[in-house]
Specification:
2 domains, two-stranded parallel ribbon, flat, two-stranded antiparallel ribbon
């Protein structure tokens, strides 16, 4: 769970989480007996194909005592969530950690069919909702904004 939460931009505080993804197969025999078998598939998250068996590295490592200090917890949570995350602001993309690691710049465009949002690399929003300058915009599968 912590690995998926981290991929979603949720702050992880404390220590490296335990990992683990498992599968279970219940197999029935012709004789009526059954057996349980577990597997070893690699379960990965979407960003950046991280194996969950390694666990999630925390955004802020805390000692045992710090995990129970409300002032420290509050300051770390405020620090993590301050600023922009997973959104376009003034043409710049801010990732889930609030960093600008993506170089192309984004802007609004309009043609006869409607408004769309794209960047200088050729990417454009389609079939998704994205946050632009503090407002959520929905884009259809053709890439046009449905709530300009």
């Amino acid at each position: 769970m912590p690995v998926i939460a981290k991929d979603m931009g949720i702050a992880i505080l404390g220590e490296n989480s335990g990992g683990g993804g498992c599968t279970l197969l219940v197999d029935f025999m012709a004789s009526g007996y059954f057996m349980n078998m577990s597997g070893m598939p690699k379960f990965c998250t979407a960003n950046p194909n991280t194996d969950v068996d390694l666990g999630a590295k925390p955004d802020y490592e805390l000692t045992y005592d710090e995990m129970f200090d409300s002032q420290i917890l509050s300051s770390k949570i405020q620090e993590f969530y301050s600023g922009y995350r997973n959104e376009w602001v003034k043409g710049k993309w801010y990732n889930n950690k609030g960093a600008q690691t993506y170089k192309p710049t984004g802007s609004w465009h309009k043609n006869a069919k409607g408004w769309w949002y794209g960047d200088t690399s050729g990417w454009y929003a389609k079939n998704q909702t994205i946050r632009i300058n503090g407002k959520n915009y929905k884009f259809n599968k053709a890439g046009y904004c449905t709530n300009p």
